[in-house]
Design goal:
The chain has helices spanning 13-22, 49-59, 62-70, 80-85, 180-188; strands spanning 3-7, 26-30, 41-44, 75-78, 86-90, 100-105, 116-119, 132-135, 140-142, 149-154, 157-163, 166-169. The chain has 190 residues and is of the alpha/beta class. It has one domain (3-188): Rossmann fold (3-Layer(aba) Sandwich), CATH 3.40.50. A hairpin with a 2-residue loop joins strand 11 and strand 12 (166-169).
Length: 190
């Protein structure tokens, strides 16, 4: 079974661990550079991107995460994790890993009380039709580069994208019983 790390600074690490286990992976919490050793893939979970960014700086993880993300191993960023993957951030920028050719707009759907769930628009990539997407203070992705493939849209907006081995979801797939997004990550391990 592939070993998939979950950045454990903030976010629903346990929900991601359950989803990864359902997808056939062994989840591994990541809080130090040594925790990245031997991983086949990585999840950057949601949470509050400023808090996660400060935690990465405090733990000295930016350099090792940049190396991991650029290594060609699969990475899934959800909500704040998608922000961390982006090349740039709007609406109170934070330091990113600069790997995904997109601009993330923080809190683009509103505050916590504006949270909602919605089905994927028709035309989602094969196998992702009808995906239920849970948005909590979610970012939007814009100015997508030519190498960024949109897999799922909600309300016409890209909410799940892929660029090579990188997946970025502006929603929280770990908060549903649908394992398909985590399965995409695990299948990318090869």
């Amino acid at each position: 079974m592939p070993r998939v790390g979950i950045l454990a600074i903030q976010g629903d690490v346990e929900a991601h661990a359950r989803a990864l286990a359902r997808a056939g992976a062994t989840p591994v919490p990541v809080l130090a550079e040594k925790d990245l050793d031997g991983l086949h893939a990585l999840v950057l979970p949601g949470g509050e991107s400023t808090t996660i960014s400060k935690g990465l700086a405090r733990l000295g993880l930016y350099g090792s995460l940049r190396f991991f993300v650029r290594s060609g191993l699969p990475v899934l960023g959800t909500c704040a994790g998608a922000i961390l993957l982006a090349r740039a951030v709007e609406n109170h920028p934070v330091e990113t890993l600069g790997a995904l050719d997109a601009v993330a707009v923080r809190n683009a759907y509103g505050t916590q009380v504006d949270s909602f769930a919605a089905p994927a628009d028709p035309g989602a990539a094969a196998g992702l039709e009808g995906l239920r997407c849970v948005f909590i203070r979610a970012p939007r992705l814009k100015d997508l580069g030519a190498g960024v493939e949109v897999l799922v849209r909600v309300g016409g907006e890209p909410v799940l994208v892929r660029q090579g081995p990188l997946l970025a979801a502006t929603f929280h797939p770990e908060l549903t019983d649908d394992p398909r997004v985590h399965e995409l990550l695990v299948r990318a391990v090869g």
